[in-house]
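Aim 2, interim progress. The first record below pairs a target sequence with its structure tokens.
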Amino acid sequence: MSARTRIRPALVRPALAAVALCSVLTACTSGASGSPRDAADGKAAEPPAKVSVVTPAAGRVVTVTATGGTLTEVRVVDAKGGVLTGKTASGGTSWVSERVAAPGAAYRVEATARTAGGKESTTRSTFRTPAAERVNRLTLAPGKNTTVGVGQPLSIVFDGPVTHKAEVEKQLRVTTSNATEGSWGWLKDWSGKDRADWRPKEYWRPGTKVTLDATLNGTDSGGGWFVRDYKTGFIVGARQIVKVDLDAKKLRLERDGRVVRTIPVSGGTPGGDRRSWRGTAVLMAKEGTIRMNSETVGLGDAYNKMVAYSMRLTWSGMYAHAAPWNEGYFGRENHSSGCIGMSTEQAASLYASVRAGDPFEIKGADTKGTVAEGNGYGAWNVGWEEWKKKSALG
């Protein structure tokens, strides 16, 4: 943070209703002796300006006012060294912080005021806000400093309920290197938790740099207070799209509009719960060799085996992976329990080529429905105008 800076009068938005104690700070005046009369000419000495602070509750702005003068410097710092910046109003007689005070935080206030006659005095004090009864936290995706595919959304899953969605969304600032158009949308995660995703209008442009500043410290979600800020950033890699045609039993990997690999596959068995999903499913993670158990996805004891080159597409358990036990069906018949299976050699090649965030565009006449927004990253299955309506600020 920078050192103290001189403040200039400026218009600010009206301060939120401040509560609690309004305390007049003790002046630490340099220069003048504080005598009621001037020793040289016997005239009454000019009294110093008085400064007071309205001590806020958590989630409210800090207000500093001057009586008998104007504010020339105000510095409000928390115990970690974080500075609450602000602006002056009313001709320099008041100052309001641009951010709210956080719950359970201690602050130091140092303010300098000048009288009309030029006498300056500095006052110092401290205050602490009450601790939050409930704290909300969140999980961000993708991870910081990662490279992702063109379909990857910014995704925030909240630990606690978010009933003040508009207030939270106001604090989520997305910046991109090329002014990408996009919007937040609120949905329910597969886990049942509240979630907010930010997706572009169209797939990301390769090379785009994306940053999220979630300045949430001091924000009440309605299900708990946030007690810290969050930040993440990532870069978009090559334009890769995996197109899966379950009717043709074929998968094509396209890079920059060119087909670079064609793979025979076998999808979910038609006619029941073992069918695959259709629509756009964004590659969530490359999980390597994992144990797959049909009981975890409601399919009884159909399978329980180690599966190589597993690429997760949904939370409900649809993967693309090696399925050597289905070798006779690749390119001929859909005969899996819902996943997109291929030979071990082809799966290894695809696994090495794709990255998290690459979209899998899946079509087929006999599927069990379209991938939902919260079942992995299904936001691309919602039209743009409909998606914008999911914003709490739309």
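The second target in this work package is listed in the same format:
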Amino acid sequence: MEKSPDHGRKHRDLRLDVFRGLANWLIFLGHVPESLLAWFTTRNYGFSDGADLFVFISGYTATLVYSRMMTERGFVVGATRLWKRAWQLYVAQLLLFLFYTAAIHYVAHRWDIVHLMDQFNVAGLMDDPVDTLVQAMTLRYKPLNLDVLPLYIVLMLFFPFALWLLLRWPDLTMLASVALYLAARQFGWNLTSYPSGHWYFDPFTWQLLFLLGGWMVLRSGEGIQRVASSRWAIILSVIFVVFAFLVTVSASAPALQALVPPGLRSPFVPNDKTYLAPYRIVHLVALLVLAVNLIPRDCEALSGPLLRSLVKCGQQSLEVFCVGIFLSFVAHLVLITTSGGLIVELLVGMSGIATMVGVAYYRSWSKEIDRPRLSRDGSAGAEQGTSSRT
């Protein structure tokens, strides 16, 4: 690793922030149970959804941020910074767990909506609180909708070794990732959950999307962009996205089932999310191909007012994600305690997204004022020290 790889970091690619912000919005909308808000997510119009995009972008940005650090300063420095980030994610998971379960418990008993305890998988806290909390700390116990961050944490814990291999043998490492993915699907490898069952997102298969993002960073200057912008890639992507749309929509709309014969639809229904079905990966890649061609890197709209909120949510992804998960429960509570209806659901969805945007802007402002100001000679002023970016 004598040479420092240049992955185009001189100018921030705002498309990453847009896609990451979009993933957070989709996860929030998709996590509001029994509402029409899920129809605004991609999962009802194709095979992949916000979780797939979130994991892919996470692997992409982790490689973008830490590959140069590991190259220039060595494995130990790069690994410890990645583990520092994993620790931040772990603390966020525990705090989210605390507020999330406490809110569900309080609401369920304060307003006598006891079924929420079972619906959100927090009843174990009443039966065996100590053991349940211990299992939550080991990431084996996860209430409903709290599955994504544990997956992210595990992937980040092992990513220093994967990144070290990617920097030396990117193609062989990617092949090894594919082999692990195929073996996990074949033999059903997964981590166990508490009190029973397995992880909703199997890390042995979902690592493929994470590594795919990293591999694309390191290979971005060696033909991937040219392939993605080729006519045949665009045509094939359009065909597959349309096919996924027809299969997914016809599965929930009997009137449209004639468009897709049962024999053609059955391999894709139900959609295998736990073990990351191959067609989910293909669908996500097809969407990305179309997106990067429709939205070039220098697109003026990326810095315009229409996408500014998405960009902010993407730049403050962790905080926005945690708030979105909590708001999904709040949104569900509002819907089940009111008359509901389409207008109420739309208002709840827009209010939740507006709150996420507000949190993103606040965090951006807060980080900005915490940075030390420079005096006229360029040195740090009253606030000594240097700011760090992770």
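The radius of gyration is 22 Å. This observation will shape the mutagenesis plan for the next reporting period.
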